[in-house]
Amino acid sequence: xxxAGQNVTVVFTDGVLRISTxxxxxxxxxxxxPSAEELPVGQRKWQPFRPAHRLLRPPSSTDTPPxxxxxxxxxxxxxxxxxxxxxxxxxxxxxxAMLVLxxxxxxxxxxCRTNPVLAYCMANNEEFKAKPIAAARTQxxxxxxxxxxxxxxxxxxxxxxxxxxxxxxxxxxxxxPSMLRRLQNAIAHDRTITGLLAHLPTLNAGILHLVTxxxxxxxxTRRLLKEVAEDPAELAMPQAGDVLSDALAMLHDMEPGRxxxxxxxxxxxxxFHDAIMTEHQAHLRQQRDQMVARYQFPAPPVPGTxxxxxxxxxxxxxxxGETQRNCVGSYTEQVMSRRCYIYRVLAPERATLEIVWGxxxxxxxxxxxxxxxxxxxxxxxxxxxEWLARYRTSV
Length: 395
Hints:
By secondary structure, the protein is α+β, with helices and mostly antiparallel strands. The protein has a domain at 295-389. Helices cover 45% and strands 13% of the residues. A hairpin with a 5-residue loop joins strand 8 and strand 9 (351-357). It is globular, with a radius of gyration of 22 Å.
């Protein structure tokens, strides 16, 4: 069984899940032993690798019939013991390392149950320790016997019971290696951040994104964090943090040292963003057109359509920001460095789309907003997601 798109093919045959893209082929099998290998285009020898792709997902409650790609992933899922599937399926990416750890050391299941995100970090320790795959796999098994505070210290976090409790409050759906590395770095530079987090019952993606912003301890309040922690929409995709990040990026472009007030509510972040955006658009208009025009953007990572049009120059970004009253005019550097790409959405309604390279190895929707950052309809979200799904290599 399998699925074919313009650029991605996913098939499951003879116990092997095969994922093919224009640049690389991957093959994964669980039996008789876990094995993951990849073959980049132009190479002749398959090499071991650690997939970032999401391979397992909790069963959906919707009545939508699965497509052939979903059937291929489902068939692969059936080859893995059910307790292991349950232990890792809520993670949004980098599940393979956890599965392999549970295979190599069944006793690590205790840590998966009591502190799943710490087990996730330990299994993916090469993301924190810059080690070869084989060494990371061996060390994950060895450290699975240690106390949680010892594991934390090895990974670069404070080796304390308090830190173990903080990590325990991160929902699996909110975890990614990149976000956890940012948390590690933020705490290393400012230990007061742990005090901001100590009173919160859950540390969702929105919270993690906020506290890892520059100057976080100067501008965040417990009242704001409580509001974000209680918002179900912030579980896996940060929203208030994205707005704040955009505003801080625009401010850094204009006046990095400006004093900032503390934010006590998400509404205040939105108001701050809108005010900075107005300033920044005036700032951009003052820049010389010939300097802006010289930027040559990389090719769009996902081909556009008549309704979803890539913006391929700094001038187009600036025009989109002025038309839609948003901050994409400041995204030239991010697009040039391939950290994101911006598209003009024309139907079902007018909107601006930002896609980013996700932790699961696929380009994903990050922001999709109407004029003045207004929310868009469900139909528009579905239209964009169906377009992106054609190029997705994760389940």
